Sequence to fold (81 residues):
Amino acid sequence: MVNKLSLGEQLAQVPTVRKGPRCGVGMLLERLDPDDREAVINAMNDEMASAPFISRILVDNGYRITTNQIARHRRRECQCP
Ligand SMILES: [Zn+2]
Fold:
């Protein structure tokens, strides 16, 4: 099937991401003290750091963060501003 829309027209249809309340990860980052926050952000930014492993460490420390939440936040698919 031939798509008659130009690339620009198709891209113009990409919905803009609605920004809303922070996801669980974003809310956690807000609550942590600066040292812990930086450590979590560094782990998140490290593509090689396993999300399930990060999640387990956070849960062990009393923060209910799932692997999915971490993965979504990393991919910027969450609603964090
Ligand atoms: Zn988020």
Notes: The longest helix spans residues 34-45. The mean pLDDT is 91. Helices lie at 7-11, 24-31, 34-45, 51-60, 67-74. Residues 20-74 form one domain.
